[in-house]
Amino acid sequence: MYTRSIALILVALGLAGYAVIARINLLWAAALASAGLGFGFISPLVAARRMGFLAAAAPHSALLATAVAFILLETPESAAVASLLAGILLIYGAGYPVYKGVDADLVTYLFVGFTAAASVVALYYASATGAGYSLASLLLGDPLLATRWEAYYSLIAAGVVALLSLATYEAQVYGGVDRDDARLATGRLWLHDLAFFTALGIAAVGLIRVSGFILEHVLILIPAAIASSIASSAREALLISVASALAASGIGGVLALSLNIAPAGAIGLTLTAIYAALAVTKR
């Protein structure tokens, strides 16, 4: 009962924030909501699979895929779709060795090394030639600058992440507790792994325009940390994670507009404040 009450309060605060922002600009509210929805759903999956280290490296693939796509392709729409496909393939490249039993930390080391170095090359080329997407937008993110197409694109990406998460959540939790038993019980563990890495790739690449490379690390990890501090079941953890991410996105957007600060930073600070507040309340 306590957990559900907290979730309802968080959702109400988030919706109130979106309502305030929507009165100014509906596209801003949509872009902010997509970040809260997408990362709110992917975060507990990452925690359930115990892949926080690898998931925190996912933004590196998003940065690389997006930078290269905007260098090679002329229109933002075609570049966004191409970067999404390329980013998912990069995540698959890291996920397949993990599925085959290679240590996830080792895979992460190699994955981060390659994607970080390649991203520097791509971003340097983009800055030197004037090609590609705004580097500041990729790194810092700004949902308040989202175009109509970007807002719709982000909402669709977040919706797909939510559907994949809901469809496989119990199996993901089961696989995180005992992977070998889950493989024997379901017989479709590869399918659940595919859904997980697809959702992670879509969240990291599809939402980088509204969240930014830097904040994605926070949004992927902290909602699950908030949930783990008060939830007593896997379902409650999912509920709290989504509610806290939605609340942080809505409240952070209002703070950004009121204080004239970076929206992505305001969202991250709001998430941290929610964690601290709930920790104090619980004690």
Measured between the Cα atoms of the first and last residue, the distance is: 17 Å
Main sheet summary: none
The tally of strands reads 0
Class computed from helices, strands and strand pairing: mainly alpha
The CATH C-level class name: Mainly Alpha
CATH fold-level name: ABC transporter involved in vitamin B12 uptake, BtuC
By DSSP (H or I, 4+ residues per run), the number of helices equals 14
Shape: globular
- The gyration radius over C-alpha positions equals 18 Å
Helix proportion: over 70%
Beta-strand content estimate: under 5%
CATH architecture classification name: Orthogonal Bundle
Order of helices and strands: HHHHHHHHHHHHHH
What does this structure look like?
This protein is mainly α and 283 residues long. The chain has a single domain (2-282), classed as ABC transporter involved in vitamin B12 uptake, BtuC. It is built from 14 helices and no strands. The chain has helices at residues 2-24, 26-49, 52-56, 58-72, 76-99, 104-129, 135-140, 148-177, 179-186, 189-206, 208-211, 213-230, 234-259, 263-282. α4 packs antiparallel against α5 (76-99), α4 (58-72) packs antiparallel against α12 and α8 crosses α9. The longest helix has 30 residues, at 148-177. The two termini are 17 Å apart. The mean pLDDT is 85.
